[in-house]
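Researcher: Let's do a round of design. I'm pasting the C-alpha cells now; please hold your answer until I've finished.
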C-alpha cells in the first residue's frame, strides 16, 4: 500500500512551493492572480511530489482541511482554507492562514516528539534500573 502524505507534509509542501508567489504579488504590476491572500496551487504538481493520485490531494484539501480549518465570521462571511475558485483563479489556498496552520502543526509535532523522546529515555532508564537490581 502506498504511503499517504500527512496533512503536515502537504501543507508544508504547499507553503514551500508557493511562498515566493505569495510575497511577489503586486496588484499594480504584472498582476498574476485575483487576490493577494488566495494563492492558486497546482494539485497535479503537488501530487507528483508525493507520488499519489491528484484526487487524493484534492480530496484532502477540499473535503478534509477546508472542513477542518474553514470558518464563518459573525457577519456571515466565509474564510476558506482551500477554495475551488477565488476570483478568476481556481484551487486556491488562503496563504496567510495556511502559514498559521503550518506553524501550529509544526509546534504540536515538536511537542509530541519531545514528549515521546522523554518517555523513551524514561523507559530505558527504568530498564537499566531493573537490570542493575
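Researcher: That's everything. Go ahead.
Model: Designed sequence:
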Amino acid at each position: 500500500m502506498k504511503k499517504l502524505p500527512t496533512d503536515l507534509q502537504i501543507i508544508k509542501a504547499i507553503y514551500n512551493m508557493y511562498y515566493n508567489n505569495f510575497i511577489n504579488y503586486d496588484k499594480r504590476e504584472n498582476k498574476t492572480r485575483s487576490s493577494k491572500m488566495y494563492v492558486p496551487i497546482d494539485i497535479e504538481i503537488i501530487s507528483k511530489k508525493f507520488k499519489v493520485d491528484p484526487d487524493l490531494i484534492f480530496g484532502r484539501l477540499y473535503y478534509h482541511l477546508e472542513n477542518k480549518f474553514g470558518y464563518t465570521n459573525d457577519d456571515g462571511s466565509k474564510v476558506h482554507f482551500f477554495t475551488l475558485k477565488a476570483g478568476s483563479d481556481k484551487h486556491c489556498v488562503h496563504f496567510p492562514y495556511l502559514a498559521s496552520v503550518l506553524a501550529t502543526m509544526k509546534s504540536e509535532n515538536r511537542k509530541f516528539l519531545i514528549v515521546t523522546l522523554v518517555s523513551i529515555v524514561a523507559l530505558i532508564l527504568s530498564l537499566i534500573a531493573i537490570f542493575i537490581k
